[in-house]
Amino acid sequence: SPATKKRRRESSRYAPPSKYAHLPPLTDILEPNLIGVFVGFNPGVTTAATGHSYAHPSNMFWKLLHSSGITDTRLRPEQDVDLPRLCRMGNTNIVERPSRNAGELSKAEVVAGTPILEAKIRRFRPEAVCIVGKSIWLAIWRWRYGREMRKEEFAYGWQGEGERMGGEEGWEGAWVFVATATSGLNASLKPAEKEAIWRPFGEWVRRRR
């Protein structure tokens, strides 16, 4: 309907950082010797307000972690700080500032988050990075190659040797796995399809533990 289309257009308008300046930044959950690190887009309003990752009730992140085998039980958002202890996983975002949705960020600031992310991976050296959403990987690609990714170049799952992140002299970098976005706003894939995409990463994490 016209009203629905109007709401969709409004939801994707850029919002300056000042709009959510009252919300505190989300603390990264990072430490050395992790099996992997989840990379989200940026904290949502609920996540920033609570101080815990993927906190909105409609977000499937914690459900997918359990159904894929990454966690033995379904964790609650407030247990995000326990990820390193429970499953040797960490969490960060490509953009630090919160917003209602990804449409409120500029393409430039998302791309600019890539070198910051690379530096974090270089510092903590996890075995792998799990990109939580196609759009994040597209932004990383734009920064790396200076162009948009062609449709035939994208695939969910493990990426090639040349796409490792954080590599430097003496370390080849972390392997990259591209998973689906988990936000309730992302309805392009059915829950069963998302679970199928996440499952290989979960099986790998369990083997590494």
TrEMBL record:
One of its GO terms (biological process) is base-excision repair, AP site formation. Pfam families: UDG. Keywords: DNA damage, DNA repair, Hydrolase. Residues 32-199 form the Uracil-DNA glycosylase-like domain. GO terms for molecular function: pyrimidine-specific mismatch base pair DNA N-glycosylase activity; uracil DNA N-glycosylase activity. This is Uracil-DNA glycosylase-like protein.
